Amino acid sequence: MAPKQPINADVPATAQPAAADGAPGPAQPGSGTPPQRGKARPTIAAPLAIAALTALALGLIAAAILAGRGSREGGEAPGPRQPAEALGYPSLATSNTTRIAAADPASRAASVALAVYPSTAAGQRPDAVTLLDASDWRSALAAAVLMATPVRAPLLVSDARGMPEATARAVEALAPHGGGTTHGVQVFALGAAAAPSGLRERRIRATGVAGAVAIAKLRDGLFGAPPKHVVVAPADEPAFAMPAAAWAARSGDPMLFTDGQRLSRPTARELRKIRHARVYVLGPSSAISSRVVREIAKIAAAVRRVSGESPVENSVALARYADGDFGWNLNDPGHGFVVARSNSPLDAAGAAPLSASGTWGALLLTNRADTLPDALRGYLLDVKPGYTTDPTRAFYNHVWVIGDQEAIDVREQAQINELAELTKIGGEQ
Fold first, then answer.
1. SS3 string of 342-401?
2. 176 within 8 A of 195, measured Cβ to Cβ
3. Residues in contact with 126: Cβ distance below 8 Å, sequence separation at least 6, in sequence order
4. Are 337 and 97 in contact (CB under 8 A)?
5. Distance between CA 322 and CA 334 in Å, rounded?
6. Which contiguous run of DSSP H or E holds residue 321?
7. Secondary structure (DSSP) of 248-267
8. How many other C-beta atoms are found inside a 10 Å radius of the C-beta of residue 406?
9. How does pLDDT run across 39-57, given as a tens digit for each residue?
10. In what order do the strands lie in the sheet with 278-282?
11. What angle do CA 280, 362, 154 make, to 5 degrees?
């Protein structure tokens, strides 16, 4: 059995030839020979390699790049597709997309955390990590606010039975060191989430709607100030709530929850304490009724609804929305985006660090594996980048794709890539 080692231990330390999927050379595919590890401290040459190396170290992308998994039709011969898939393309990355190609939320969150914090040197490590309780999606989404500046704690998935292996190895590699921004805390643990021993821990024991309130209070203490804005999301409709996690990570605006027909008491009490904050209700009236909006209006300085009739349309609405200094306002080219399945709220939490780093992308949702829903296709077409004379001076879009091919098939990834591709739109021929 191979000795236990940090998840990022196999990042190449010297400029050896690398395999096309980002794996360190010179071992040949299928040889079974592990790459040689140099004595020098490892470095990472390109941002896109980070996700590939992380997923590869976890051993998580093999299933995602198997020839034709879940995508072949009617006895199609595997031969023509094998060479590209053996390299990890287009399943892992295309010219405008990068996939977090792990098969479960814990592994995907670990891959995201190490994509944002490569952790090959002390300055690349976070002060703290947040361990989510996999049984509590509401607190998990709300905890995305802890990824915002100044705390910037990536989110990992755990549960009462113990930390998944991917989570344990990610914590080991990230080696959170505590610091002034976290008051010396190395691990924020939610609910019953198992946490490693030997690290300074702060635990939020409340769950659900009350857990989100407790996280908002923790946020105020760590940030040193109350929020200017609050997002209130539906407590019973996770797909409508998911996009708020990305915004919380980007902005530091906390996320609270309410029942659809009556304002939840813990949320009402918290809103009364921050009456000056503007409240943005996320989701249509079918998820949060107009009655609830009127109740909030009696408490808050102002209240606005941001919504789309479906979860996909709702995610687009928040990506487009702008009201003063609230909202992504992504209505033109030159941005990052994150695409995930609408049935996986833990992915919205785990991927939130991608919305607070790199290309700072809004979370967009898809409700199917093999083709883009019309609302998402139309939005990506609206913000498709173009140039007239010089493509090197253009704006570019980049999209992170969250999940393996069971979640988002390579055909859908290819459609996303096409819509994100820079296109000549006029000028001199």
1. CCCHHHHHHCHHHHHCCCCCEEEEECCCCCCCHHHHHHHHHCCCEECCCHHHCCCCEEEE
2. no
3. 117, 152, 153, 154, 174, 176
4. no
5. 17
6. none
7. HHHH---EEEE-SSS--HHH
8. 14
9. 333 333 334 444 444 444 4
10. 255-258, 229-234, 278-282, 302-306
11. 95
- Say whether pLDDT at 5 is over 60: no
73, burial (CB in 10 Å: exposed 0-12, middle 13-18, buried 19+): exposed
**Beta strand ranges found along 122-248 (DSSP E):** 129-133, 155-158, 187-190, 201-204, 229-234
Q: Which two tokens stand for residue 379?
A: 């939005």
Query: Could you tell me where the beta strands, DSSP code E, fall in 76-148?
Result: 97-100, 129-133
Tokens 């998994």 sit at which residue? Answer: 69
Cα 423 to chain centroid, rounded? 27
CB of 86 within 8 A of CB of 23? Answer: no
331 within 8 A of 383, measured Cβ to Cβ: yes
User: Is residue 87 very low, low, confident or very high in pLDDT (cuts 50, 70, 90)?
Assistant: low
Token pair 């295309």 is at which residue?
Answer: 94
The residue written with tokens 């592990």 in the block is 34
Residue pair 205/191 in contact by the 8 Å Cβ criterion: yes
pTM above 0.85, yes or no: no
- Pull the structure tokens for residue 400: 């992170």
* Distance between CA atoms of residues 2 and 56, nearest Å: 16
- The tokens for 317 are 């609405």
Which tokens belong to 199? 């690290």
Query: 201-204 and 187-190 as β-strands: parallel, antiparallel, unpaired?
Result: parallel
Going along 7-141, which residue ranges are E strands?
Answer: 97-100, 129-133
Looking at every residue in the chain, the average pLDDT score rounds to 85
Task: Report the DSSP beta bridge partners of residue 303.
Answer: 279
Q: Where are the domains of the chain?
A: 97-424
